[in-house]
Design goal:
The complex is a heterodimer of chains A (363) and B (652). Chain A has seven helices and 21 strands. Chain A is α+β, with helices and mostly antiparallel strands. The chains are: A alpha+beta (363), B alpha+beta (652).
Chain lengths: 363, 652
């Protein structure tokens, strides 16, 4: 009944799946409360509907039941999360699975639906099943195995764009943050249900730039919807950041320089893993306001290979100085034998970390 | 220390009372048959979750065989405003510690459309020991969603207890809180409310019972403040039995009766027990040491490093337990007391509260404020915390200082000992005894802009409290980690040549712990064309910054008085000069009643090709009263200001 009313105005399968998938994410809470047989047997959809909570099997069960009611090819699907270091084809045993999801399968499409993640847009399945084989139960006697794809780095990004002005000894600015893919899921999880005070405290730390005197003045979530990026706008001040010497001003515009602090290869015996591939961009625009001329800017930097890369640049226009820094991580693994490349990447990324720009005050 | 308290308090005042036909309140209590969902006000809607009703009854009664018991009823209604609160209330955990019978349990969800979803009895589970926090009854509530109410109530028959301290404020705002205390006529209770909570009111409507009622509406959620303990500032009350009129007119809890309980259990040892202690002192050659202080310290080192002392302790008798080196806290205290007698050093036992948990109330004699035990040595003017593995004589646990406590000593009347007790202040240490000093020599390579640092850090007293006493108990890997990460101010993975000294047993809280290391840093200097900028503030590490966005409600608490002195010596490279040195001068003081109680100063001098910077900060008292908080904040923030300071080097 619920399914009928949900999909009443939908024309395509994708529209229908979205209605059902998002309804389950919104309305059924993920609660793991299991013992005995409850740990293995998915509950019937009507029980889950009444309880309004369930574990992964229950989520898969209700998605499949609603899919069936809507006439969609959605099936119960067994999978092992990335915690399990082998696949079904390598170890064909129940121990290769620790999770259950649902899958929409047609001749040329396969979409994995994991409603234990509350904020997964359709197509952005939970990160911890990427690259894993899934057993999709088509009928009692028929199954297929499909590999869950990795979501490409271009789909997951965070972009932080800030405009700065110098007011006496203070830096004043406004910022605009944009999140998509897994970065969107992450930020939605963080901000979900927070009061303004909690949001303020969270973003004060998230947006901090320059030093811990960073003062976040306002923060607004300007867009937080399904299927489009999350957008946040904020305004701030940074006291005690710029260094002034009579007519000269120094400051470092690279607010992202500690991003890879925890990824040193020193003392490491194994490679490391990112939860997902991603892009990151910082864009800083400093207004010169006809009051300052640019005395010194650091050189640009660039590194790329097939798995990761970075680029940073300083651009001078008559009215602005623009710093842009981008990072892309294309692969979730950086193996031990890639450490030499990784260190070259870090070296280039860190090249300008300790370089300030210098401005002259115009009289 | 709860076991210790239970151990002392005998229930003789309560037991064996003739029972007449009793009317129990809980049997008449019920919830609404046709409830409607709560409609929060606009203000209430801003919280994720609100506690609409928190109704409590403690009904003291005598059961069939004349034993006192307590029927505890708790009736709760939560209202869910936001989805994030769903998982907070769709699983309910009720502690059943001390419960000898669960009499009633009802729970339901009232949906936003006033549909009632009762609890499924299959969902109720009983767990003997939930994650080591004792027995619990747990259940899930079906149908929880935004806009619904979650309601449950239960009555448990509880073993009798004669005092309790209840904090009613939490992270969930409460619309209405009620506490009702019902007791037989002969059992008279007293209450005291804290942190602005209104008092209980006597209800005389029932001539067969004593009834006390407390009601409070609109209790906001508790908010954290820096340099303050949120726990000690919550709305709270203490409740305890004052009189049992069947047994006379004497008040049950006075500081004297409480002190006597501790005396009887800790100060009176059998001859065989005394002998065993003497033997232990003798065997470890402790009495051969020159001064009482050395003897006390040696005893502490022995017990704290070689004996297993725990709250639960052991079933063994004292002499055997001593032999096996497994002691309950009671046994450990008896051992200390007898040893102090052997050392012939005057001492007093102090029982007090942990001031970060609740403030000691000298006007209200109660076990509620007796969490921790200290010893005082009046002739040495020192204290220690005997069961705290970090403490040594001179440095009792800092959560027990700057507070009052119950001091108990033995007085001798002829050969007979007797307790003598008094409430006194436990003074804090001199700020000069606790410090964390830093001496840094900085060499700059003007071409590569790499800096080489020689660092020596010295920690004494409370500044060494959390590391020096346990350093030698760490694994090799942990020690390495401490050397690199615990002390390093900047870029830990560049730390080399780490040497840690003064960490032997005899050094603990006697000699300052010292750590030295070298570093080669490439991130201390920023280049900007011809000039370069040394981030000198980074050398003292990040400092906390206090903002004044919200109105401060509590005193500032620095935990222990101390000072911090940093000497930074920088070689100025050949051909360069510093062009903004005066920028680093700061001078902030906090003065209360004409006395300087905290300060931050930074200054410099140039000697030849060196700039020598001195950064000094002290906090001479522990508590900074609310009305003087701004002065305290200025000092704290001055350190944060210094952390941003830079020196500009230019060619001569």
């Amino acid at each position: 009944m619920i399914t009928d009313s949900l999909i009443a105005n939908c024309k395509t399968d994708v529209e229908k799946i979205k209605k059902i998938y998002y309804w389950v994410q919104d309305k059924i809470s993920y609660v793991a409360y299991e013992d005995g047989l409850g740990g293995f047997v998915p509950r019937e959809a009507d029980i889950i509907m009444k309880r309004r909570f369930g574990d992964c099997k229950d989520m898969a069960s209700i998605l499949t039941a609603m899919g069936k009611a809507a006439g969609l090819p959605i099936y119960l699907t067994w999978i092992g999360t990335t915690d399990i270091p082998y696949q079904f084809t390598e170890v064909p045993a129940p121990m290769a699975a620790n999770h259950m999801i649902a899958a929409y399968v047609t001749k040329d499409t396969c979409l994995f639906l994991d409603a234990t993640g509350k904020f997964q847009d359709l197509g952005v399945h939970t990160s911890f099943i990427q690259g894993k084989e899934a057993i999709i139960g088509i009928s009692e006697n028929e199954y297929i195995i499909k590999k869950v794809p990795y979501i490409p780095h271009t789909k997951t990004y965070v972009m932080d764009s800030v405009s700065l002005k110098i007011q006496d000894n203070l830096l004043v600015g406004n910022g605009y943050l944009k999140f998509d893919g897994y970065k969107k899921v992450h930020i939605q999880t963080q901000i979900n249900g927070k009061s303004y005070t909690e949001l303020y405290d969270y973003f004060k730390s998230y947006c901090e730039k320059g030093n811990n005197k960073f003062k976040l003045d306002t923060v607004i979530i300007s867009k937080n919807e399904r299927d489009v990026p999350v957008e946040i706008k904020y305004t701030f001040k940074i006291p005690n950041y710029i260094t002034t010497l009579t007519n000269e001003i120094f400051m470092n515009l690279n607010f992202d320089k500690n991003y890879f602090e925890d990824f040193s290869t020193q003392d490491r015996k194994n490679g490391f893993e990112f939860l997902y591939a991603f892009d990151k961009q910082l864009l800083v625009t400093l207004a010169l306001d006809k009051k300052y001329s640019v005395n010194f800017i650091p050189e640009n930097s660039f590194y790329t290979n097939s798995n990761f890369g970075c680029q940073s640049s300083y651009t001078k226009t008559p009215s602005q100085l623009i710093f842009k820094s981008t990072i892309h991580i294309n692969s979730t693994f950086v193996n031990y034998n890639e450490f030499e490349k990784w260190n070259e990447f870090l070296k280039e990324h860190n090249k300008n970390n300790n370089k300030s720009i210098s401005l002259n005050k115009l009289q | 220390m709860n076991n210790l308290k239970r151990h002392f308090f005998l229930l003789l005042v309560i037991s064996m009372h003739t029972v007449y036909g009793q009317k129990y309140f809980y049997k008449t209590y019920n919830w609404e048959k046709e409830p409607t969902v709560y409609k929060p006000t606009e203000k209430e809607s801003t919280a994720d979750l609100i506690l609409v009703k928190d109704y409590n009854v403690l009904e003291v009664a005598y059961d069939k065989d004349g034993q006192a018991v307590i029927y505890e009823t708790n009736h709760v209604i939560y209202h869910v405003n936001k989805h994030s609160a769903v998982t907070e209330v769709n699983k309910i955990y009720i502690s059943t510690r001390g419960v000898n019978e669960e009499l009633d349990l009802k729970a339901r969800c009232i949906t936003a459309n006033n549909k009632i979803i009762p609890i499924n009895a299959d969902n109720i589970k009983r767990v003997d020991n939930l994650e080591n926090s004792g027995p619990y009854t747990i259940f899930t509530i079906d149908g929880v969603d935004v806009g619904c109410d979650v309601e449950y109530y239960y009555t448990n028959k509880q073993n009798y207890y004669s005092y309790t301290y209840i904090k009613i404020q939490s992270k969930t705002p409460i619309v209405k809180y009620n506490m009702n205390v019902l007791s037989p006529k002969n059992l008279v209770y007293e209450t005291k409310c804290y942190n602005g909570l209104n008092d209980f009111v006597k209800d005389e409507s029932d001539s067969t019972k004593n009834i006390l009622r407390l009601e409070r509406s609109n209790i906001p959620e508790i908010t954290e403040e820096d340099y303050s303990s949120v726990k000690a500032n919550k709305l709270a009350f203490s409740l305890q039995l004052a009189y049992n009129t069947d047994k006379g007119k004497a008040k049950i809890f006075t500081w004297e009766t409480i002190a006597k309980g501790y005396y009887n259990n800790l100060f009176l040892l059998e001859d065989s027990e005394k002998k065993a202690v003497a033997k232990l002192i003798d065997k470890n050659k402790i009495n051969k040491l020159a001064t009482p202080e050395e003897k006390i310290r040696a005893l502490e080192n022995l017990i704290k490093l070689q004996y297993n002392v725990s709250e639960e302790g052991t079933d063994l008798e004292f002499v055997k337990a001593l032999d096996k080196k497994i002691l309950s806290e009671v046994y450990a205290l008896r051992l200390y007391i007898e040893a102090f007698r052997i050392f012939d050093v005057p001492f007093e036992l102090i029982i007090t509260s942990d001031r970060s948990n609740r403030k000691f109330d000298s006007k209200y004699p109660s076990y509620s404020f007796l969490d921790d035990i200290l010893f005082s040595f009046p002739t040495l003017n020192k204290y220690t915390s005997p069961t705290d593995v970090l403490s040594r004589i001179g440095y009792p646990n800092h959560y027990n200082i700057a507070s009052e406590g119950l001091f108990l000593k033995e007085i001798m009347v002829g050969d007979i000992g007797a307790p003598s007790s008094k409430i006194k202040q436990i003074s804090g240490n001199d700020y000069l005894s606790s410090y964390h000093n830093l001496a840094i020599k900085v060499n700059i390579n003007p071409t590569s802009l790499v800096t080489n640092l020689d660092v020596v850090q010295t920690l004494a007293g409370y500044q060494a409290y959390y590391i020096q006493p346990v350093y030698n108990l760490l694994s090799a890997e942990q020690k390495l980690d401490v050397g690199k990460n615990y002390f390093t101010i900047k870029t830990p993975n560049t730390t080399k040549n780490v040497v840690i000294s003064n960490v032997n047993t005899e050094d603990i809280l006697v000699k300052p712990m010292q750590i030295s290391y070298t570093q080669e840093l490439s991130d201390l200097i920023e280049s900007a064309g011809n000039k370069f900028i040394l981030k000198v503030g980074d050398l003292i590490g990040p400092q906390s910054e206090l903002y004044s966005d919200k109105k401060r409600v509590s005193d500032g608490d620095i935990y222990s008085s101390h000072y911090l002195k940093r000497d930074i010596e920088i070689n100025i490279p050949e051909g360069y000069k510093i062009v903004n040195a005066d920028e680093i001068k700061i001078n902030k003081k906090c003065i209360i009643d004409g006395k300087e109680v905290a300060q931050f100063t930074s200054d410099y001098k140039i000697e030849g090709n060196k700039i020598i910077i001195t950064v000094y900060e002290d906090y001479r008292v522990v508590i900074y009263p609310l009305e003087h908080f701004e002065g305290f904040k200025d000092v704290i923030n001055a350190a944060a200001d210094f952390n941003k300071k830079t020196l500009i080097f230019d060619k001569k």
